[in-house]
Amino acid sequence: MNMFRDTRGNSIIEVIVVIVILSAGIIGTYGILSSGQKLSTTSENRIRAINIAREGLEAVENIRDTNWIKFSSDYDNCWRVQDYNVNCIGNSVTTLTWFNVLVQSGSLWSLSGAVTGTGAPVYIDANGLTSHSGSNILCGPGKTTDCKTIFSRWITISYPDSDHMKVKSVVTWTDSSKDWVYTIDLETILTNWKKKF
User: What is the pLDDT of residue 177?
Assistant: First the structure.
């Protein structure tokens, strides 16, 4: 009886089993790494969206604070106007409402544009700051400034009463990790606390 013939057949089967096990391990590892990368991208985009939404809230707060400086003679009526409007002095004028576009000129913010269902696209300018206008080239690994992001933002403002302003900043986006639209919705209440002075 020849024992070598039986061993050769077993060796080929063993090699095939090892190849199948290694292939399954490599495919499983690739799946885990791919899922981790998608989760990382989603988390990074969520953090960016929160910062863009927070910037919207801070911009409206900046407008309120600037109005206190511009209209120091009438804290009651002029703390919530869009632009310099002398008619607000001594009159109750409310002009801040729903807007798409934040515009920054120097250190001053202003709001313009009517809100649409999708908001206004967010761009990264040449200085790396967000804006609502710029190049239509999509941001990517090779292009991080003067480009268009995947985010859109809009801001809504309402008035629960004469001394409070409810500001809502909404950011939406779709990234490559999923097919649905993500939404970040931040809210704050600004008060006219200077009215007491």
Answer: 62
What type of residue is 20? V
First-residue to last-residue Cα distance in the chain? 109
In one-letter notation, the amino acid at residue 182 is Y
- For 129-154, how does the pLDDT look when each residue is reduced to its tens digit (9 = 90+)? 788 777 888 888 888 888 889 998 88
**pTM higher than the cut 0.70:** yes
Range of the domain at 32: 4-196
* DSSP secondary structure string for all residues of 16-64: HHHHHHHHHHHHHHHHHHHHHHHHHHHHHHHHHHHHHHHHHHHHHHHHH
**Domain count across the chain:** 1
Report which of 147, 149, 183 is spatially closest to residue 168, judged by C-alpha positions.
183
